[in-house]
Design brief:
This protein is mainly α. The chain is built from three helices and no strands. The longest helix is centred in the first third of the chain and has 40 residues, at about 5-40. The radius of gyration is 19 Å and the shape is elongated.
Length: about 90
């Protein structure tokens, strides 16, 4: 394995890291949109203006689900981006 192979592996790692970061950002945005729509759908008084504290005060279960949606978005976004990248590399 020569220095060119090592350079290629570093480049591939950087691209994979970039794909994961972009996927996490996109996932966070989508997660925020889904969380806001969830809060509006379940009927929290202030709707999209409600803070996480407001959601927890009105409905603890809804607060837990909202936090789970917000936390899961970036993780799923990164996983999907890496899987898409991996499947594109094998084709």
């Amino acid at each position: 394995m020569g220095w060119r192979d090592n350079l290629t592996m570093n480049s591939q790692r950087r691209r994979a890291l970039l794909a994961a970061v972009v996927g996490a950002v996109v996932g966070a945005i989508i997660g925020a949109i889904v969380a806001v729509n969830f809060v509006i759908t379940i009927g929290i008084d202030r709707g999209y203006e409600a803070s996480i504290g407001d959601v927890f005060r009105e409905n603890v279960f809804a607060g837990i689900v909202t936090v789970a949606i917000l936390a899961t978005g970036p993780v799923l976004g990164a996983v999907v981006a890496l899987r898409r990248r991996r499947s594109a590399d094998t084709e």
